[in-house]
Amino acid sequence: MPQEKEPLKIEFGGITANNVEMLRKLNTVCFPIAYSDNFYKDVVARKNEGLNKFAYFGGFVIGAVCARVEDKRLYIMTLGVLAAYRGRQVGATLIQSILDYYEENKNVELAEVEEIALHVHVSNQDAIRFYVSKFGFEQGEKVENYYRRVEPPHGYLLFKKLS
Amino acid sequence: VCWHVYGLLHRADHNYNEAIKAYKQALKIDKDNLQILRDLSWLQMQMRDLNGFLVTRNTLLNLKPNLKLNWLAFCLSKHLTGDLEGAVRVIDIYLETLDADSPEKQRDYEPSELALYKNHLLGEISPHRGYLHLMACKPLVVDMGAWMLQKAKYELRMAKWADARATYIQIFQRGLTEDYRVHAGYMCSILERPQIPKTIGTHTLVTTVVLDQKQRQKIMEVYKATLARKFGRSKAVQRVIMTLMDQDELSVALEAYCRKQLTKGVPSLASDLQSFLLLESPPPSSPNAEKTFVLATDPLDIKNHATYQAMVKIADRFITNLESCKKYDPNDTDEEPPSTILWAWYFRAGLHELAGQYNEGIALLEKCFEHTPTAVDVYELIARLYRSAGDIAKAVEYLDKGRDLDKQDRYINNLTTKYMLAAGQPETALERISLFTKHEGNPEQNLFDMQCCWYELDLADCLGRKQIFGKAIKKYTAVVQHFEDFQEDQFDFHSYCIRKVTLRAYTDVLRWEDDLWGQPYYGRAAEGLIDLYLKLHDNPGLLNEQLGNGAEPDYSNMTAAERKKAKAIARKKKKAAEKKAAELEEKQKAENNGKALANGPVDDDPDGKELLKSKVPLDEARNYSAILSKHAPGKVSTWILQFDVSMRRKKTLMALQALFKAKSIDAENPDLFTRIVEFAVTTPFVDENEIVMSVVKSELPSLLNGCSNVGDFVMRMSETCKSAVETLSLPMRTAIAAALIKTEKASPKEASELIVNGGLNGHGMTVENCAKALTVLQKMGAETGTWEKIVKEGFPLSTLFASS
C-alpha cells in the first residue's frame, strides 16, 4: 500500500433541500447503484447534520456520509469520496465524526442504539479492510441478493457493538 | 394661496414645469412668501433652471440671513451658474457672520465638508489658491484621506514633484496601497507629469499610456526601492511591478504568481491575467497626442501576443508536471493538494477561451467534471464556451445542471436566466428568476418594482428576436421608466444634502444625473426601441399581425365574391381567437378562485398591445435617437441609428451629419461603410431642394475617401480586401461584398469570393458574424455551400451550421 499522506483538511456541512443535488451527483459518480428520489427526500427531511453531512475541500463538496437510526442500530447508508480526493483519510474522518456524534449523544437521543452497521459488496475488499482494521468492525453474515444490479448481488453485514 | 395649492398639485403629479409656472404666479401676488420661494427653488434645481435658482436663493437669503441653509444654497447656486469667485466670497461672508468660537468653526463633520467644498471651488479657480487654503484648513478637516489626495493633486499641478511623492507615500501608509488610481498618481509624480489619466480597475499610468523604456525603468527603480520594501505584502504593488517588467522577467514573475493563485484556487486567474495583454492602439489623429494602450480582445490579437504565449507555456508545463507527479516542478519538495490540477485545467481552459479555441477548452473542462463534478465554476465556464462555440442550448443545459447543485447561489441562478433568455426560452427563464424574487402573484411585477434592468433588457432582446414586438417594446419602455424614476428620485436630495452640508457628494450626484441618459443600460433600451420601431415603420403589415389581426389580405386585387369570402374567413378567425382568449380567462379565474385579488397592481396591458396601437413608430424612434445623440455622442452606434432614423424621415442633411460624426469616432466601422454606400447610392435620386443637394455634392467625396463616385469607393475597398484579406475583419468583408452587389460592381460569385476566400482568418471570427455573412450570401443569391463547410470546420459545435 502506498505511504499514507497527510490527512486532507476538510470542513463539514449539512445537507439541505438547496444542496441535496450535490449529494445525488456524488453518489452517482461513486457508486454503481442509483438511489431513489425518496432516499434524498428522507436525508433532507431528517435534518440531522450529525449523521448526514458533506465533506468540503477548497469550497467544493468532495465527499459525504449518510447514516440513520434503525431500531437499535446506527446504520450507515452511504459513504462516498470523489476519486481524485481519495487516499487522504477523508472517508476515515467522516466515519470518525459519526462515531464522535454517537459518543456525544449516547446518553441522550441515541440511548437506544447498541451497534453501528453497514453493508458492503462481497468483492469490496478495500472497504472491508477499511472498517475492520481501522475502526474495529466485525464482518458478519453474508446477505444474499442484497444488491439488485451488481454482479454478484451479495453483500456482507459489517457491524460494531457500541457501549 | 390658490396658485400655491395649484403648484403643489402639479408637483405631486410630477409636472414640474407647470408647477414652476404656478409658483411664479403665486409669487406675483405674495412676493416674500418663504414657503413658496423655498418650494420654487427646489423645483428650479430639479429642472436645472440654474439662473432662476440663483435669483430665488438670493431672495431667500436676503429675507432670512440667519439660516445656514440659505447661505449654502446661495453659494451652490453661484457655483453652478459659473461664478466660482462669487461662491467662495459667499462662504467667506457667511463665516464672518459667525463668532470665533461658534461650533461651525470647530473641527467637526459639517465644517470639514464646507471647507473641502470651498477648497474644491478654489482649486477650480487656481491650484495655488487651492493649495494655500488646503494647508490652512487642515485643523478643521475630518476626511484626511480626501485631504491628502487633494494635496497630492495640487502638488502635481504646481510641479512640486518631491512634495507630491512624499504625500503619496503618506497616502499609501494610510492603507490605500490597493487603490490603483493612487498608484497612477504616484507614477505621475515620479515622471513629473501634472495630469493623472483616468483609469479603471487595475490600470495605472503604465498600462494606459505608452511610455518609453527610460520612463518605465525610472518608475521600476522607485517602486523596487521604496514601495516593494515598505509594502511588501501588497498585491497591487507586486502587480504594478509586473506591468513594468520586460517579457523575460515577466514570464518568471507570472510563473510565481500563477503558482500561488492555483494552489489557493482562484477561479478568475485567466481573466485577471488578461489585463496584461495590451496592444498599442492605432496612432492618434493629432501628432502631438500620446500613444495609448488598448486591451486585446480579439482571439487573433491574443494568440499573437508574446505574454499570452508565455502564459500558455507556463500553464501547459504545470499541467504536465501536476498530472505526472502532483507538483508544479519535479524538484519541488511538497505535493500539491488534489484541487490544484483542477484549477490548472480550468486556467488553461480560460486561456483557450481567450484565443477562441473553444473545443480544446471544452475537452479540458470535461476532465474537470470527472475530477470534481460538484464544482459549480466549471459548469459556468463550459456554458460560456458552448455559447461562444455556437450551441447555446447545450450551454443552457450545463448551466442549469450547475444551478441545480447549489440552489442558494443567486449568481448562478441569474446567469442561467440570462442564458435562457439568450437561447429564446423566456418562460423557463421566468421560472428560474422567480426562485429568487419575493413576489405575491406576478414575479414580473416584482422585478419591475426592484428596477431589475438587466432582466427586462435581456427579455426584451429575446422577445424582439422572436418578433413579439408588443411585449418587447413594453419591456424596453419599462427600463426607460426606471431611468425616469432615477431622475425623479433626486428631488428630495436637493434640500437634504444642502442641509447636511454634504456638498461635494451632492454636486457629484447632480453631474451624474445630468449624464443619466448616456448610461449604458438606457442606451441598450433606447437602441432596442429604435430598432423595433424602425422595423414596424418599414413594415406596416407587421403592426396588424402583432395586434393579432393577422395579415390583412390584399383586397384590391380580388373580385367581389373573393373579397366577401376573405372577410368571412377573417371574421371567423377573429371570433375563434376571442373565444379562446375568453376560455383561457375563465380557466385562470377558476384557478384563482378563492385567492384574494389583492396581488398588487394588475397589469392592464400585459402584452403591450395598447402600447403598440398608441405610438407612431417613426416619431418614437426619432425621440429616442435625439436623446441618444445628445447624451451618448461618443458611441458610434448612436450615429448609425440617427442615420437610419433620418433617412426614413427624409432629412438628408441630418443623415449626412450622422455619417460624419460616426466617421470621426470609428472610420473603419463596417456598419458605417454600409450606410455610406446606401447614402451615396440613394441620395442623388431623391427629389430634394437645390441647397441640400449642393451640400451633399460638396461633402460626399470626403466620405468616399476622395473618390468621385461610390462605385470607385467600393472597388477600392474591395481591392484592399483582396490584397490583405486576413487583416480585415469578417464583418467588414461582409459589408464590402454586400456593397459590391448594391453598386452593381461585381457579380454575386465575385462578391462572395471576398467572404469565402478569406476563410476564418482575420478579426471578428465569431459564430454570429459567420451567420450574418451567410445571410448576406443568401440574399445576393450566391452559392453558400463552401462557406458553410468552412464555418462548420472551424466551429464544429455550432448548431446554426449543422451539417445537412
List keywords for this structure.
heterodimer, A: 163 residues, alpha+beta, seven-stranded mixed β-sheet, 4 helices, B: 804 residues, mainly alpha, two-stranded antiparallel ribbon
Describe the structure in your own words.
The complex is a heterodimer of chains A (about 160) and B (about 800). By secondary structure, chain A is an alpha+beta fold. Chain A has four helices and seven strands, in the order βααβββαβαββ. Chain A has helices at about 20-30, 35-45, 90-105, 125-135, and strands at about 10-15, 50-55, 60-70, 75-80, 115-120, 140-145, 155-160. Chain A has a seven-stranded mixed β-sheet with strand order 1-2-3-4-5-7-6, sandwiched between helices. In chain A, a hairpin with a 2-residue loop joins strand 2 and strand 3 (about 60-70). A two-stranded antiparallel ribbon of chain B has the order 1-2. In chain B, helix 22 packs antiparallel against helix 23 (about 410-420). Residues about 595-600 of chain B have low confidence and may be disordered. In chain B, about 70% of the residues lie in helices and about 0% in strands. Chain B is mainly alpha-helical. The interface of A and B includes residues 18, 21, 59, 60 and 88 of A.
List the helices and strands and how they pair.
The complex is a heterodimer of chains A (163) and B (804).
Chain A (H helix, E strand, L loop, with lengths): L10 E4 L5 H11 L6 H10 L5 E6 L2 E11 L2 E9 L8 H16 L9 E7 L3 H11 L2 E6 L11 E7 L2
Parallel strand pairs in A: 4-5
Antiparallel strand pairs in A: 1-2, 2-3, 3-4, 5-7, 6-7
Chain B lengths: L1 H11 L3 H14 L4 H13 L3 H14 L4 H13 L3 H14 L11 H17 L1 H10 L7 H14 L3 H13 L6 H12 L13 H4 L4 H18 L4 H10 L2 H18 L4 H6 L3 E3 L12 E3 L3 H5 L2 H20 L13 H16 L3 H14 L4 H14 L2 H14 L4 H13 L3 H9 L8 H7 L3 H13 L3 H21 L1 H9 L3 H12 L5 H19 L1 H7 L13 H32 L17 H6 L2 H15 L4 H13 L3 H14 L4 H13 L7 H14 L6 H14 L6 H13 L5 H10 L9 H13 L5 H10 L10
Helix pairs in contact in B: 1-2, 2-3, 3-4, 4-5, 5-6, 6-7, 7-8, 8-9, 9-10, 9-11, 10-11, 13-14, 15-18, 18-19, 19-20, 20-21, 21-22, 22-23, 23-24, 23-26, 26-27, 26-30, 27-30, 30-31, 30-34, 30-35, 34-35, 35-36, 35-37, 36-37, 36-38, 37-40, 39-40, 40-41, 40-42
